[in-house]
Amino acid sequence: MTTVLVFLDHPGASLAKSERELLSLAASLGDPVVALADGAGQAYLDGVGSYGVREYYRPDTEAVSEVLVAGKAAFLTEAVRATGAGIVLLGNSYEAKEIAARLGVRLGSGVITDVVALDADLAATKSDFAGSYTVTCRVTSGVPILTVKPNSFEAVEAGLPTSPREVRIPVELPAAAARVTGRVDKPVSGRPELAEARVIVAGGRGVDGDFGPLEDLADALGGAVGASRAATDAGWIEHSAQIGQTGKTVSPQLYISVGISGAIQQKAGMQTSKVIVAINKDADSPVFEIADFGIVGDLFSVLPQATEEIRKRGL
Ligand code: FAD
Description:
Rossmann fold; alpha/beta; 23% strand; single chain; elongated; binds flavin-adenine dinucleotide; 2 domains
């Protein structure tokens, strides 16, 4: 059976949804093993074990995470060799994609990023050129290295929590031009991570600096709040909320676009969403071309009504 190596970066207290999706995919493709650059707590490891992972690999030095992506790529290279992995799966963050690229160079392997579907013969589906094309491609040399978009594969129900065995492997760290000297945890917002959220309410220039009504709707739906570049550039919301070509790529079940015109660079980050609802006061706005449902109206009138109705129905 093919060994499928899953790289899990920055483990939290328990498995995130996107990590459960990766592990589910790995278990459906073969025998899953995990590589962890950073240490993880017992609850997290038990969660990993519940997906049939019997062994997880750790570097013999904690300094791997100090040299950013180069150290992690060096560690993953050794993990692929130690496990004899036939497939490597990573998340789809910028960091994961860079690690994948460096791993591909080290192993002489092909890399496919932004994977949203995968056939049994490893033909991967992804969208390219700012979402203009849907492409099917397959790695033809070396060990296929795939970075997988969140919300693309189902996270199956895991088995009973079991503790996988730790295997430490030696890693020779590359010379580092820069080192991480400290880390600060991001403040917890209580809302889901943008990349993982099933529902996203995203606002653009039309919100005119007031994200309050969007936050209310997002909270009523248990969703996350995102933004167009116009809104992040204006300083109305943090840059990490930006969705699009130069921001995050998201594929939630429901994307509610509010006061966003739908420029190609914005669409590039959200058009693989399952259902798109657009709220815009301009009936000719291009966002309506990709929306499944559209509401022509002033967001400050539409959103409070929608939030109130959703709360009333206890959805
Ligand atoms: P606008 O285009 O100004 O649209 C505002 C919309 O709000 C209008 O349609 C208007 O009708 C509507 N509106 C106004 N008031 C209301 C109201 N009260 N109620 C309802 N609707 C209202 N953009 C991104 O989003 N993400 C990216 O990653 C990104 N990367 C880029 C990369 C490059 C290289 C370049 C050149 C551009 C990039 N952009 C990106 C910018 C992109 O081209 C657009 O400029 C940007 O998306 C516009 O943001 P917007 O839709 O919020 O603003």
